[in-house]
Amino acid sequence: MAELKLMKGNEAIAEAAIRAGVDAYFGYPITPQSEVIEYLMSEQPEFRTGMVVLQAESEVAAINMVYGAAGTGKKVLTSSSSPGISLKQEGISYLAGAELPAVILNVVRGGPGLGTIQPSQADYFQSVKGGGHGDYHMYVLAPASVQEMADFVEDAFEMAYKYLTPVLILSDGIIGQMMEKVYLKDQQPRWTDEEIQKISGKWATTGRIGGRERNIITSLDLQSEKMEARVHRLQAKYKKMAEEDLRFEKIQCDDAEYLIVAYGSSARIAQKTVDLAREKGIKVGLFRPITLFPFPKNQLMEMTKQVKGILSVELNMGQMVEDIRLSVEHKVPVEHFGRTGGIIHTPEEVLAALEQKIIKR
Amino acid sequence: MDIKDIIKPENLVYTKTKLMTDNALSYCPGCGHGTAHRLTMEVIEEMGVEADTIGVAPVGCSVLAYDFMNVDMQQAAHGRAPALATAISRTWPDKYVFTYQGDGDLAAIGTAETIHACNRGENIVIIFVNNGIYGMTGGQMAPTTLPGMPSSTSPYGRDTAKMGFPLKMTELIANLPGVYSVTRQAVHTPKHVRKAKKAIRQAFENTRLKRGLSFVEIVSNCNSGWKMTPNQANEWLEENMLSFYELGDIKVEGQLVKK
Question: Is residue A234 part of a domain?
Answer without folding.
Answer: no
